[in-house]
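We modelled the chain as a single entity of 460 amino acids. Its sequence is:
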Amino acid sequence: MTSETDAPALEGDAMTVVRERAAGSGERPVLRHPLRAEAVRGLAPAAGGAVVLTLGAVLAATADRWQGGWVETRSELHDVLLLLLPFAAAAGCWLGGRERRRGTEELWGSVVRGPLARFLASAVPLALWLVAGYTLTVVGALLATWPYARGDRPYLDLLPVDVVAVAAASVAGQVVGRVVAWRPAAPLLALAGYAVLGLSVASDDGTGRFVNPASPVSYWEVPAGRQRVAMAVWVAGLATAAVLAYAARRRWTALLPLAAAVAAGGLLVQSGDGLWHGNPVENRQVCDTSTTPQVCVSARYGELLPQVTAALSGVTGRLEGVRNLPVRFEDHLGEPRAGEVQLPMLTPIGWSVVRGRLTDPEQYAWEAVAMLQGRGDCGTLDPRVSLADDAVEHYLAPSPAEEYFDGLGARGDEERRAGLAERRAARERLASMGADARREWLSAYFATAGDCDAGKVPVL
């Protein structure tokens, strides 16, 4: 005897049952696909819904750092695999042990279908529901990014492999659930999977991350076509080999997908970073040539250029006619070339830029002035240099924190009050200069940009 709770398990043979009932009653037989019962009720749809809710909550909590950037959205959707793959494996493991928990293993052994067909009848719906939940999450994230994107295009290069990895984790987990007769196997498998995925990224030799389907991806990297094919073969081959070794009539056939997985894994490890290349859009610049210096941003968020130009308008306007300036602010990977100075960082999203808007234009302008001065690598500066730098910053783009620190100086001891008075006097001398005299002094000052020698900085 079986209870009503066994119905979803037994409906895997529903096509035969419905035919027999129809034959006995004289009714026309109604054919039901064996996947139907698993697909419309039970664990599979619940797991798909859990994926949407869980990943939706995770992505909502981190929306500031990806919403508004297509590459950032791609990377964030890939990074959630660190949670999704262990969950998929645990869901498959729990479903794999269902018949043992219900005591229906002997009953299933008496049906006409072979072990592989019975395995697929329960494994495929769960894998499809998990993939559907992840895909729905991807669509939602892309729609959330679209109104705030400031250039470039959606990146779907990692999605096919990620989908294959989710399905493979679910199927492999179900094999574990059928083999391991232990109720805590599912949560322990999830914990073990999370640990393995996390530790392989942090491995000393770095090889583990090349075969890790959840390995983080840098914003400026895109995978080559071979990498995607090899990763898909790697994860799918291992899962297929496990299924065939467990359920196939000719278990030696598991060697075929296993050999393909080993070959693909070897390619991934041997090629390493060679299967990844820089995003060509990252180094493509979009420039405003009407200012001095010119302002350039990466084409990946080229529509931010008007905001950046507006934030720096006070700086560039006061520098009109000043000599010895860089030709442009650049925003490409690597060190600035001759005649360039680095633009203050716009990425990673979530700091200077959130949802397509500069968060603090005044702070951004002050950072741009610090880039022009170029003394970030100097140690302790001579007081004379510090006075000149502070006066130039105050004139071009005062720090938003300037008033706060001046207040601390005013309430400090005699030495701090004297230092504040000296700084204010230097600011006043620069501001009170005639326009031509100030341009000449600033021209001499920017000729020493990046120089830590106090003797070269003009006296203020």
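As a brief sanity check on the tokenised model: The mean pLDDT is 87. Residues 366 and 397 are 5 Å apart (CA to CA).
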